[in-house]
Write a structure and sequence with these properties.
- The protein has 52 residues and is an all-alpha fold.
- The chain has one domain.
- The chain is built from three helices and no strands.
Amino acid sequence: MGFEEEIGERSHSGDWREESQRRLEVRERGRGVRENEWWSHGWRRLEARDRG
């Protein structure tokens, strides 16, 4: 029973969040720059539209 509680605690702890965050960063990096370029391009268009 104590073991299960320990697992539950860990899943809510910072370690678990840090691990998922690290995995997300690796995945984002794996996608490459192409998507980043597309995103920044789309963002610039949005800003231009708001200004105009």
